[in-house]
Amino acid sequence: MDLGLAGRRALVTGAGKGIGRAVVETLVAEGVMVLAAELDPGCCAELEAMPNVRAARVDMSTAEAGGRLAVLSQDMLGGLDILVNNVGAAPLRHGFADVDDDAWRRTLDLNLMSVVRTVRATISLLGGSDAGAIVNVASTSGRYPEPMLVDYAASKAAVLSLTGALATELGPAGIRVNAVSPGPTRTPLWDEPGGFADALAQRHGLPREEAVVHHVRDVRKVALGRPATAQQVADAIVYLVSARASHVTGTVLAVHGGMATHLM
């Protein structure tokens, strides 16, 4: 199926690993030129080696990041058609009392304010496109929070609300705004030492892989019984920015494998 993306120009944040990396690879395969924003220098070098990708090492938690990426999009790509706000972090907590003001600020700056600042800085570029599209990567945690992700969940709830407001305001300018809301997704965040899988093993008192299965099937009640892959989430994102979704805006596309708490 032709997605009608050849020749388009995209900015993807948090592009080095997991969902962001899969989005970059999928867009490139569809003929899109990509500016990939990433903080890790090793990931930047890998991204830069890909065809039709320019990498920018940017700390998306800073106030100037959005403006810098808007300038780079114009200079490197000659404009912008697509923005994928993917960057984010999900620090694991013992509970609400574990998160002080500085921790709240760090999470909100990266997960929410990076979206606010990047959209603000790129509106004029996207409005000059005949197919402007924004996808914000939220999370089922935004509607199904839990104490071990309290600040992350709050930041993603705000991203969902922001997506709706932007869709309403930017629609008349021809800019579509949607969100993708992944459920449990097996990314490096899970598998790195001390990551989510290790935390689940400690929390549930089970071996690592058994704890992941228990969390997905019994706690989150995912009907398909397995976490998503980064590629499965990326496919949903790329669909939403494509010509095949040209009348879709203000939508939250859930990629959660049938979580019982989210059905209907």
UniProtKB/TrEMBL annotation:
Q: Which Pfam families does this entry report, sorted A to Z?
A: adh_short_C2
Q: Do you know which PROSITE patterns this protein is assigned to?
A: ADH_SHORT
- Coiled coil: which residue ranges? none
Gene3D superfamilies found in the cross-reference section: NAD(P)-binding Rossmann-like Domain (3.40.50.720)
Q: Which UniProt keywords apply?
A: Oxidoreductase
Cross-referenced PANTHER family, in alphabetical order? DEHYDROGENASES, SHORT CHAIN, SHORT-CHAIN TYPE DEHYDROGENASE_REDUCTASE BLR2146-RELATED
Record family assignment: Belongs to the short-chain dehydrogenases/reductases (SDR) family.
**Protein name per Swiss-Prot or TrEMBL:** SDR family oxidoreductase
- In its UniProt entry, the species of origin is given as Georgenia daeguensis
Provide the taxonomic classification. Answer: Bacteria, Bacillati, Actinomycetota, Actinomycetes, Micrococcales
